[in-house]
Amino acid sequence: MTDGDTLARIAEALERxxxxxxxxxxxxxxxxxxxxxxxxxxxxxxxxxxxxxxxxIGVDRxxxxxxxxxxxxxxxxxxxxxxxxxxxxxxxxxxxxxVHATVAAEGLPLKIVEVQREDxxxxxxxxxxxxxxPEARFLLFCDDLSFSHDDEHYKSLKAxxxxxxxxxxxxxxxxxxxxxxxxxxxxxxxxxxxxxxxxSEATEEKVSLSDRFGLWLGFHPCSQDAYLGMIRGYCxxxxxxxxxxxxxxxxxxWQATRGARSGRVAWQYFTDLAGRxxxxxx
Length: 282
Hints:
- This protein has 282 residues and is α/β, with parallel strands linked by helices.
- It folds into two domains: 32-219, P-loop containing nucleotide triphosphate hydrolases (Rossmann fold, 3-Layer(aba) Sandwich); 224-276.
- 44% of the residues lie in helices and 13% in strands.
- The chain contains eleven helices and seven strands.
- Helix 2 (60-74) packs across helix 3, helix 9 (224-238) packs across helix 10 and helix 9 (224-238) crosses helix 11.
- The radius of gyration is 23 Å and the shape is elongated.
- The model has no long low-confidence stretch (mean pLDDT 84).
């Protein structure tokens, strides 16, 4: 075998190891995308699973704040990254998707891109891709974001919150939901502080991560009236007929069996009710 043949075989092997770059995504294909890695690509989502904004009961204040911030961003005005934190099942992710749908329906060039927490190390490559598409504005969304004491993914998040030397792309804003206000368990924060040589600095880098969000929007457990109001709103919107006394008795019993009261529990009861009444949920 000649040296030329050997070099050709090496070149072919290198080509197989390094596949060609992924074609540029068709950003006009949809208003919603999911970011995947290996290889990097944006997958269009033609039908987003979401609830209408006016059906989200009991979160009026945070809804209005997030809607105003998102409209500002979509219009090319200054806007903040947002952290939606608090009680489980109170509509944190639902409100992000509903706000996006509302703003996009107004004709503003806003697209939503969902990023999984485990894919945060690739966030720099995604930002580079979106930076090259100035004709649209992108709401990056990470659901159920949190970090453990030995998790290094939080360092990648700084690229989208602070942007490094290049700065965050002007056409990108980041929204995250979490059950934790500081994105890591309180016992881990306290343990690291108590065992550190310099307790005040031990977790400064991780705890301060949440400080990089301009908006902190808290979600708290709902009252019984709000819980029943959510269900009544679903019934009216989907045409499920039920009298108030029956709804109240059944919904409270359902809540008791779940040991919790939240927007998620309200939807689960309503799903069961709609099924029993023979109503499909389009």
